[in-house]
Amino acid sequence: MPALYIMIPAALLIVAICIFIFFWAVDSGQYDDLDSPAHSILFDDQDPQHTAAVEEAKNLHPESTTDTDSKSPPHA
User: Fold this and answer.
1) What confidence score (pLDDT) does residue 22 get?
2) What pTM does this model have?
3) What is the pLDDT of residue 27?
4) Other residues' Cβ atoms within 10 Å of the Cβ of residue 48
5) What is the distance between the alpha carbons of residues 20 and 14, in angstroms, rounded to a whole number?
6) Distance between the two ends of the chain, CA-based, in angstroms?
7) Any residues with CB less than 8 A from the CB of 58 and at least 6 apart, and which?
8) Which of 41, 56, 60, 76: CA 20 to 30 A from 34?
């Protein structure tokens, strides 16, 4: 029974801290955009080595450049 005198206030304190953290997160904009991070993982970042190789190929063969050279090919 004496443990309840410690456990109940400790539980209420933990709940109050969790509620405070939740409202702080909502006020700071943590939940403003829930869709973009889920979709951004589907897009690949540009590979720096591939970009450098494309630029080097453009410099070696400038007559064969077209508008599609600036776009990276789809990854297999």
Assistant:
1) 96
2) 0.47
3) 93
4) 8
5) 10
6) 65
7) 65, 69
8) 76
Contact 54/73 with Cβ under 8 angstroms?
A: no
Report whether 58 contacts 69 (CB < 8 A): yes
* The two structure tokens encoding residue 59: 């410099």
- Per the CB < 8 A criterion, the answer to whether 72 and 50 are in contact is yes
Residue with tokens 């953290």: 21
Please tell me the predicted confidence (pLDDT) of residue 16.
Answer: 99
* pLDDT recorded at residue 54: 79
Contact 72, 46 (CB under 8 A): yes
- Residue carrying the six token digits 């050279």: 69
Token pair 């063969």: residue: 61
Block means of pLDDT (10 residues each) for the chain, 76 residues, are: 94 98 92 77 70 80 59 61
Task: Check if the beta carbon of residue 39 is closer than 8 Å to that of residue 32.
Answer: no
